[in-house]
Model the fold of this input.
Amino acid sequence: VMPCTPKVQNILDTFQTVAELGTEALSVYIISMCMRPSDVMLVEVFQREFGKADGNTLPVVPLLETIGALKDAPMVLEKLFSCKWYRDHLREDRFENIQEVMVGYSDSAKDGGRMASAWNLFKAQQAMVKVALKYDVTLRFFHGRGGTVGRGGGPQHLAILSQPPRTINSYLRVTIQGEVIEQDFGLQPLCDKTLETYTTAVLKADLIDFADVKPEWVAIMEKLSETSLAKYREVVHGEPRFVEYFRSATPELELGMLNIGSRPAKRRAGGVETLRAIPWIFAWTQNRLILPVWLGVGTALKKSFEDGDEAVLREMYESWPFFKSFFQLIEMVLAKADPLVSQHYDNELVDDKLKGLGVELRELLEETIEMVLRLSRGSKLLDTDKVEQRSVDTRRKWLTVVNLIQVEALKRTRAGDESPVLKDALITSTKAVASGMQGTG
Done:
């Protein structure tokens, strides 16, 4: 017997445990960061090798989490479905010819920004539906959403109705995380309302006629996505000052010691690429810049306006649910952002050599607000949703006070003060900002 590394032994032990627990205890096997058809087949092989004589194995669900994985999604399904063994395997009685695919909103947005993520998720689902129809396989989607807009969150009714045609099919599976669990299911009336929202949206998605997406809309969306992606990666991955600025201007470094998350803040040692999507969004939400959600959007819109696409953009906004819902969510996030609060974090916590980057980012924020208002023809953010506008405005003055407390707590902590009272202040202020911003799960 060949010796195993601890990592390999852990994998083998996992499949042994899966086989022992069986299908009554476990519903599916989800492959995180699935990139190739062989990832799925390897799990099938391990299940068969460790399984019982009856061959009763778990359905295997590929989780597509990055921009690259989403682009390769139709290829992955094509190769799987073109394999006779796999197709016959799906047609066994217990699988009912159903292939479930999980699409990840968090890591794809962290990888390339919210706009590129949203568009690639839309295209990937469309393309996968075509492959499934070709091979007569029933395709179901499992949406790995978080609470924040940057992780696919937002009003679920709107999100469901903006999905591509033939991707709901009377079925919805979605993750509910963090503060959103209590927010949507914490009380009986809230739970009833949430389930009613999901049910009506799923029914409507099957009953309404979807507007045809014009080729010129697709072409413009491609340009917007590419421009947004390039700007996002230019700043996040190409700006040499970015990582140091991020760790100074937000409480990212302190989040790990606060023990308020469900998982470690990082997958491994390293830069932004190693940070989990939850603390990535959470940290930027704390200093009110909320950078990952809007970065690249204003740049993309501005270029499209300059290219003479304004009339078509307005038509898309009025007639395409996917496009309108995306910008309504962006508008809500922009209304919660506060450049003055972000500037205060910079003034108190950031080294002078990095402050110039903060100025540049706030200029991009102001540009994004201007471009989104130009698209929606509003005079103020959230003019089309007065209830949400009033809610954000009401919370803002209280949030600002909490932000000031957090800045002082961070400043003293970084100066070496380790008193329990200060740590409590930091934890309390962090939770208070999260609560005030809402939807941070």
Strands lie at 29-31, 60-64, 98-104, 138-144, 173-174. The first strand starts at residue 29 and ends at 31. The chain has a mean pLDDT of 88.
